[in-house]
């Protein structure tokens, strides 16, 4: 444990000096405030508190931004050590590859948690300031924060795995961007296209829920929207959220980080010097 | 005494190429061995196998009684890679605190370790601003953590100035006196000559020679070179006395003989009395011995 902690402290320092802490926090706060300002108009007709509506918009933001930040922080984790030549010495220390990755994960998760808490917190402050009744939505805000951290953990793990597979930072960066595009953008576009052509048939009723659970980003969206019962406010693919039991999307949210980190450790173990 | 490091018939192949061919050696506690060889002779491969960084194909390796790379071996072995690198964003002190924690030692020792390698003044600066020599010292400092039983040093003095090199070998002497076995590779043969107990010469993946410098010198039986400086006005008589000698541009006579002929030759020169101004006897250098062994079984 002390080895994981020591690794985490060094990684946090490195991320802080490389401005990752300020970049991540700045991005989250900026986008959250823009959303909070832009989303202030349609509150009246939805019939829920202001903060819950903000959280619904923040969920859509987080689906894009949290995986992106996680991949940006993680793609260099193994490939960077290989390129700098710091890995051989590190691997002669009495520390396992699992411990090294967990240390990096701890530091990067702390930064993500800080960024989303400050970002969502800023948006929440705006909501509560303009509508004191919005404090009712604090529960959904808290849920959004911890699910964002889990979503981040999944993409951090995926980023480490790509980093170990690519072994060069440039290759790892390319793979990370590709993963982000596929998992967060193209996957949903493909599902939408299938829903349209299917016209409410077997795909929409049977395969769609599975497809949503199979993608950590969609599971995150489904969980937050159905838990907040703010489906109506979100619409789109979120509309399908009601059909999926809460425990299933929660399970997907919890299992994905474990799978991603398991994959990362397996890929890291394959890195020879 | 049980050896700290034992290799027996170690073989390593990369594709079809044999990088190490049945290499056997052992290193006892407190002994300093220098591993010599051309680039590509297998030095770094051998070290990486000892450290457990890469697998091997045949033979046996025992590091402090354990398998290379096992947790027990890693806890007792310290390594200094060639061209050691660190994260440029960390300061020297932070980097050492990290390494201390990984070895389960108190991070408070970081400043003391940096002091031992003469880096206390730069402890708060980022390693990105360090010179190559300073990075090498950070690398050296991290090998001093705990009490390693085996030190593996790949070209440890590259990038160090002559004074730092001497300090570095003084540190090694202290560690060896406490029982640490040291395996180092170097290109600077003169310093290896003076500061190690035995020499291992690798050539084309084979261990072609092993022993103390004196033993290797005797085995190689290379000629001893003489430079005889004639006294003014006696150049011709001296040249006549040594018809086998070659005169160089300065008028010095160059002679060479086997080890056994050395004393009789000195007696002959001394017998010429004041015809001789001075005499230099040059025993075969480590470079000569090294070339002899690495060429004989050539690559």
UniProtKB/TrEMBL annotation, chain A:
One GO term of the cellular component aspect?
plasma membrane
Question: Which Pfam family name is an example for this entry?
Answer: ABC2_membrane_2
Question: What residue intervals traverse the membrane?
Answer: 20-41, 61-80, 101-129, 141-162, 174-196, 246-268
Q: Which GO terms describe its molecular function?
A: ABC-type transporter activity
Q: Record's superkingdom?
A: Bacteria
UniProt entry keywords in alphabetical sequence: Membrane, Transmembrane, Transmembrane helix
Q: Which PANTHER family match?
A: ABC TRANSPORTER PERMEASE, ABC TRANSPORTER PERMEASE PROTEIN NOSY-RELATED
Kindly provide the name given to this protein in its UniProt entry. ABC transporter permease
UniProtKB/TrEMBL annotation, chain B:
InterPro entries reported in the protein's UniProt record: AAA+_ATPase, ABC_transporter-like_ATP-bd, ABC_transporter-like_CS, ABC_Transporter_VariousFunc, P-loop_NTPase
> What would you give as a GO molecular function for this chain, any one?
ATP hydrolysis activity
Report the sequence similarity comment from the record.
Belongs to the ABC transporter superfamily.
Source organism (scientific name): Metarhizobium album
Give coiled-coil spans as residue ranges. none
Q: Which Pfam families match?
A: ABC_tran (PF00005)
Lineage top rank: taxon: Bacteria
Q: Which residues form the ABC transporter domain?
A: 5-229
Q: Which protein are we looking at?
A: ABC transporter ATP-binding protein
Q: Which SUPFAM superfamilies match?
A: P-loop containing nucleoside triphosphate hydrolases (SSF52540)
Keyword set, alphabetical order = ATP-binding, Nucleotide-binding, Transport
């Amino acid at each position: 444990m002390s080895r994981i902690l020591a690794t985490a402290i060094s990684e946090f320092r490195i991320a802080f000096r490389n401005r990752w802490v300020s970049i991540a926090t700045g991005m989250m706060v900026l986008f959250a405030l823009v959303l909070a300002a832009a989303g202030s108009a349609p509150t009246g007709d939805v019939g829920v508190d202001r903060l819950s509506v903000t959280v619904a918009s923040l969920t859509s933001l987080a689906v894009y931004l949290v995986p992106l930040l996680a991949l940006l922080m993680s793609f260099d984790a193994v490939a960077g050590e290989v390129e700098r030549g710091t890995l051989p010495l590190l691997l002669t220390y009495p520390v396992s590859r699992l411990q090294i990755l967990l240390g990096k994960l701890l530091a990067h998760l702390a930064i993500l948690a800080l960024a989303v808490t400050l970002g969502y917190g800023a948006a929440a402050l705006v909501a509560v300031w303009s509508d004191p009744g919005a404090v009712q939505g604090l529960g959904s805000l808290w849920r959004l924060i911890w699910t964002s951290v889990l979503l981040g953990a999944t993409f951090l793990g995926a980023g480490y795995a790509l980093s170990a597979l690519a072994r060069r930072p440039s290759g790892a960066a390319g793979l990370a961007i590709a993963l982000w595009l596929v998992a967060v953008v193209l996957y949903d576009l493909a599902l939408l296209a299938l829903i349209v052509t299917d016209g409410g048939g077997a795909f929409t009723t049977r395969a769609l829920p599975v497809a949503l659970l199979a993608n950590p980003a969609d599971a995150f969206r489904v969980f937050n929207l159905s838990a907040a019962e703010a489906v109506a406010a979100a619409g789109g693919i979120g509309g399908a959220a009601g059909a999926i039991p809460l425990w299933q999307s929660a399970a997907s949210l919890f299992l994905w980080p474990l799978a991603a980190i398991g994959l990362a450790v397996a890929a890291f173990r394959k890195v020879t010097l | 005494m049980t050896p700290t490091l034992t290799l027996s018939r170690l073989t390593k192949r990369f594709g079809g190429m044999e990088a190490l061919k049945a290499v056997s050696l052992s290193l006892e506690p407190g002994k300093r061995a220098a591993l010599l060889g051309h680039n590509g002779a297998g030095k770094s491969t051998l070290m990486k196998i000892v450290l457990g960084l890469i697998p091997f194909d045949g033979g046996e390796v025992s590091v402090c009684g354990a398998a290379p790379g096992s947790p027990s071996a890693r806890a007792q072995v310290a390594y200094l890679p060639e061209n050691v690198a660190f994260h440029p964003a960390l300061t020297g002190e932070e980097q050492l605190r990290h390494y201390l924690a990984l070895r389960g030692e108190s991070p408070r020792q970081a400043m003391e370790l940096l002091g031992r390698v003469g880096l206390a003044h730069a402890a708060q600066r980022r390693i990105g601003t360090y010179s190559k020599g300073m990075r090498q010292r950070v690398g050296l400092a991290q090998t001093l953590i705990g009490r390693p039983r085996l030190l593996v040093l790949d070209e440890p003095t590259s990038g160090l100035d002559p004074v730092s090199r001497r300090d570095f070998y003084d540190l090694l002497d202290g560690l060896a006196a406490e029982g640490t076995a040291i395996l180092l590779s170097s290109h600077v043969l003169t310093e290896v000559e003076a500061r190690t107990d035995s020499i291992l010469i690798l050539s084309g993946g084979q261990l072609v020679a092993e022993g103390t410098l004196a033993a290797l010198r005797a085995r190689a039986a290379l000629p001893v070179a003489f430079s005889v400086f004639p006294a003014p006005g006696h150049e011709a008589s001296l040249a006549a006395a040594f018809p086998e000698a070659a005169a160089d541009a300065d008028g010095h006579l160059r002679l060479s003989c086997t080890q056994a002929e050395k004393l009789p030759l000195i007696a002959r020169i001394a017998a010429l009395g004041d015809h001789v101004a001075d005499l230099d006897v040059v025993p075969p250098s480590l470079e000569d011995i090294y070339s002899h062994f690495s060429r004989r079984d050539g690559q």
